[in-house]
Amino acid sequence: MSEDLELVVFGAHLRGGPLAHQLTDLGARWAGEIRTAPRYRMTVLPTEPPKPAVTRVPDRTSGASLIGHRWLLSPSALGRFLDALPPPMQLGKVEFDDGTWRTGFGCDASAATGPDISEYGSWLAAVEARAV
């Protein structure tokens, strides 16, 4: 049996979110919250349902620390999830506040042109504040 892989999500795939079923249908298990290093921005993509675009900022540029949710999936489930991922969403390495780099959701920076909601620190807080 293969060891499970971790995936960190920041928006509609958060536990309880409208797209979390895409992970749980693949057998994913929720594994807790985690916070990025303060090197990211979160903007709103014009999708249905709305999704965040999480992008890393260049050095010496103001960023924010964002809250995400950790999910554990089998390698084959993560492959199926990645295969179905629509553009401009991407999976890649994300830096966290504990100094680790983990696989997480990101977005092609050229698509991250919507309203910046980084100040809220999380997708859920931005939704609660009706910024989304």
Automatic annotation (TrEMBL):
Pfam family, one: AH_C
Matching InterPro entries: AH_C
Record-annotated Allophanate hydrolase C-terminal domain positions: 6-126
Source superkingdom: Bacteria
UniProt protein name: Allophanate hydrolase C-terminal domain-containing protein
